[in-house]
Amino acid sequence: MKISNLTVEIFESLKRKKYLLIFYTLFLLFSFLTLSVSDVMLQENSNEEHRVSVGNTKTYKLVDTLIGEKEEVFLRNLQSVSYLNAMYKELSDSQKGEYQVVNSQSINYLQEKDLPTEFIEHYEQIAGSVSSWTKEEIPFKSLQMNDHALERFNLRIASGQSFSPSDYQYNRDKIPVILGNSYSDYYTIGDKIQLSYLFKQFEAEVIGFVEKGERVTFNEYEDYVLDHYIILPFIENAPQKISEEEFSFFQKHFLNGVNGYFQVPESFSQEKVYKLVNEISSTYELGTVDLIGESGFHLSALLFMITKNNELLKLVVSFSMIILVLMTIVFCCLEMYRDKKIYQLHLLFGATKKEIRNYIMVEKTLLLSFVLCVSLTLTNYLGEITLVLFIRLLYLSLVLIFLFFLISTIILRKWRITND
């Protein structure tokens, strides 16, 4: 008998070996997903490694020494805003390195929003008293970043957009913001938020959300996972004419701005950086600026952890692929010997071994296509499907199809009934 109705034959086959087939399909799906998820995680680790790694550079934290009376004298100077703005501008425009601003100045919301305590700055330290505070007094986690800092950490935007050059310019009471991923449960693109930053009120417009788990890190003390943060663009210029309120605001704002991070080539010594920075600060009567070197141990520990995670992922994937190949061989042998009598009946009634093998290959191709589609769908939900991942999954599918072809051919040749 010829195998004329392939669809009926496959359906009957599925009913005969449903438990064996379900077990193998689940294992196959698990293996494909292991490869897919590991690829997504390796890509995440690669991105994290790129952000953490500083290459052949080193970063210094600038710390002004305006304390007590020295600070009061400087801030009484009517030129203080101009001096601070000019110093920031000179540091930012320096050709010797990249000047990055990442300030963790908290903000206050001016409208009721039932946000969890994870969004509150230092909640553990103020938990006992925060319940009696007004909404304007509760500090929420925030970062102010300039364009050099955003370029260094290459923050990935889940939806919306990042800051444009015009967003760093002062626009009176309006400012765009990017929110951490956890904020997406409470706000959407285009929402307006009334907030206070350094005692100045702004109407903030949500323009984007960062990917979950995005991170900004310089050392163990300045290591921010951005899920619960609101990110403001660092305003780079004060207008010529400002009110008394704006004067006070820009004093605080630019004083934070000149306490940023200077990333320079390794060949540029700390003495040279110190001399460069203090030549600029003396021009604007800011006094001495100290330098704090980066924590090499913290960054090295992060890179070591990422490397170990990558090695573990690769080991798990390799082990999973070996088990999958062995399981495929066992499954194919068990399946064929289980249905041996049925295949022999087909041979007796006129079917050829080639037709039986073709039927087996169609069945397995459909199975692998189903698993491949499910894996790609789930991977697309978890992260981006890269071309490399698609090629790997396709290659794995072809290897398994070849195994099915090889094993079925060998077993069919061993059977005594021949009808080629």
Structure description:
- The protein is α+β, with helices and mostly antiparallel strands.
- It folds into two domains: 6-49 and 302-414, no CATH class; 56-295, no CATH class.
- Helix content is 51%, strand content 16%.
- The chain crosses the membrane at residues 21-42, 312-334, 365-383, 389-412.
Instruction: Work out the count of structural domains.
Output: 2
Q: What's the count of strands?
A: 14
Order of helices and strands: HHEHHEEEHEHEEEEEEEHEHEHHHH
Low-confidence stretches: 295-304
> What is the global morphology?
elongated
Which structural class fits the helix and strand makeup?
alpha+beta
| Rg measurement, Å | 32 Å
Distance between the termini: 13 Å
Please state roughly what percent of the residues sit in beta strands, choosing from under 5%, 5-15%, 15-25%, 25-35%, 35-45% or over 45%: 15-25%
Number of helices: 12
Rounded average pLDDT: 83
- What kind of sheet is the major sheet? 8 strands, mixed
Assign a percent range to the helix content: 40-55%
Protein name: ABC transporter permease
Keywords: Membrane, Transmembrane, Transmembrane helix
Organism: Enterococcus mundtii
Transmembrane segments: 21-42, 312-334, 365-383, 389-412
Brief synopsis:
This is ABC transporter permease. Keywords: Membrane, Transmembrane, Transmembrane helix. It is built from twelve helices and 14 strands.
Outline the fold blueprint:
Layout (H helix, E strand, L loop, with lengths): L5 H11 L1 H35 L4 E8 L4 H8 L3 H13 L5 E3 L1 E2 L4 E2 L13 H4 L15 E4 L1 H7 L3 E4 L13 E6 L12 E6 L2 E11 L4 E3 L5 E3 L4 E4 L10 H14 L3 E5 L4 H14 L5 E5 L2 H43 L1 H9 L4 H30 L4 H28 L6
Helix pairs in contact: 2-9, 2-11, 4-7, 9-12, 11-12
Keywords: Membrane, Transmembrane, Transmembrane helix
Protein name: ABC transporter permease
